[in-house]
Amino acid sequence: MNEKKVKVVGICGSLNKNSNTRKALETALLGAQETGAETEVVDLNNYDLPFCDGSKDIGERFPDVKRLSDLMKSSQGLILATPEYHGSFSGVLKNAMDLMGFDEFEGKMIGLIGVSGGSIGGLYALNSLRLIGRALHAWVVPEQVAIPEAWKAFDSDGKPKDEHLAKRLTSVGKTVARFAFLHSSKQSKEFIEAWEEAPKNPGG
User: Fold this and answer.
1) Element spanning 84, H or E
2) Mean confidence (pLDDT) of the chain
3) Are residues 9 and 72 in contact, defined by beta-carbon separation less than 8 angstroms?
4) Per-residue pLDDT tens over the stretch 62-87
5) Greater model confidence, 120 or 62
6) Tell me, what's the pLDDT at 120?
7) 138 falls in which pLDDT band (50, 70, 90)?
8) CA separation, residue 132 to residues 80, 83, 100, 114, 162 (Å)
9) Which helix (H) or strand (E) holds 141?
10) Three-state SS at 78
11) Nearest-angstrom CA–CA distance, 3 and 186
């Protein structure tokens, strides 16, 4: 990817200081970096976000809402990573997403990662996030990673112990970055415009 460097932002849905969710997310972002993408992690601990109350001026009243919005708008791809709590994704991630909207998500490529302490691996959380991505007119890539028993999946340096897991995580990052590039590249836009202007096939 050399025409335009895309930006992939990873949002960590865990506030745990020793978060396995963040370890998984950082591994996925390494995959995006391997394609040449610029990456950044959103640690929600570093954002003073209010509970969403539906007001339209909330970004004016809370600077970190605008800071998060501006960062997401600057990206072409997003990776959402969450622990699974009670069969769904984390409340802190839900609130952050509720404070955002179409301006931050529409048309973006999104990758999903879910972790859990149990044997299912965050699949319920991932299904919920996929529905939200669709509702916000984002492109959720088919690949996703669900990590069961995440407490034993990473070593002391935060790296996946299993090589197959590492490859799956980096693959999500690569896929998001590559499709984000294709979606935003000049050649792709020119192709789509030419396709739309092409005469209809008389044969149906």
Assistant:
1) strand 77-85
2) 92
3) yes
4) 999 999 999 999 999 999 999 999 99
5) 62
6) 85
7) very high
8) 11, 16, 12, 15, 30
9) strand 139-147
10) strand
11) 8
Work out the angle at residue 109's Cα, subtended by the Cα atoms of residues 183 and 195, and round it to the nearest 5 degrees. 30
Report all structural domains of the chain as residue ranges with CATH numbers, in order of start: 7-197 (3.40.50.360)
Share of the chain above pLDDT 90, in %: 83
Six token digits for residue 49: 């976000």
The phi, psi pair for 30, rounded to 5°, reads -60, -35
Strand-pairing partners, residue 115, are: 83, 147
pLDDT at 192 over 90: no
pLDDT in the model for residue 76: 97
What is the pLDDT, as a whole number, of residue 185? 74
Answer yes or no: are the C-beta atoms of 137 and 102 closer than 8 Å. yes
Residues 8 and 177 sit within 8 Å (Cβ to Cβ): yes
For 48, the token pair is 């003073």
The residue behind tokens 């997310």 is 25
The token pair at 54 is 């539906």
Gyration radius (Cα) of the chain, Å? 18
* Partners of 10 in the β-ladder: 41, 79
**Strand-strand pairing, 38-43 and 139-147:** unpaired
Q: Among 100, 107, 147, 92, which residue's Cα sits nearest to residue 123?
A: 147
Name the 3-class secondary structure at 12.
Answer: strand
